[in-house]
Amino acid sequence: DIVVTNPPFSLFREYISQLDKYDKDFLVISNINAITYKEVFPLIQSNKAWLGVCFGRGISGFIVPESYELYGTETKVDENGNRIRDISPLNWLSNMREMRNHILFMIIIGE
Prior knowledge:
The chain is an alpha+beta fold. It is 20% helix and 23% strand. It has helices spanning 12-21, 41-45, 103-109, and strands at residues 2-5, 25-31, 50-51, 62-63, 75-77, 83-85, 90-94. The strands form two sheets. Strands 1-2-7-3 form a four-stranded mixed beta sheet, covered by helices on one side. Strands 4-6-5 form a three-stranded antiparallel beta sheet, with no helix packed on it.
């Protein structure tokens, strides 16, 4: 099994601990601040997990429905009419060794 997800922020620490406990391969979207969590930093420090490309402001985002109110500087409408909500700064976190050098880049550019 491979877990690819954007877990709820309120459950992130518990979720990462559970993935590690059950030795699951994972690729998760996290807030960049998650690297400081006691559940995450030891994984990075011991080379059991790696950070992917950090989304910079203005290049990340999620398409939101018409009902979502666009406000602030973190929202825009792209050239295709998609309503985008920027959720910066985000980061990929993974423990998949075989994908360490290339999967994170491919996900960012959408291949």
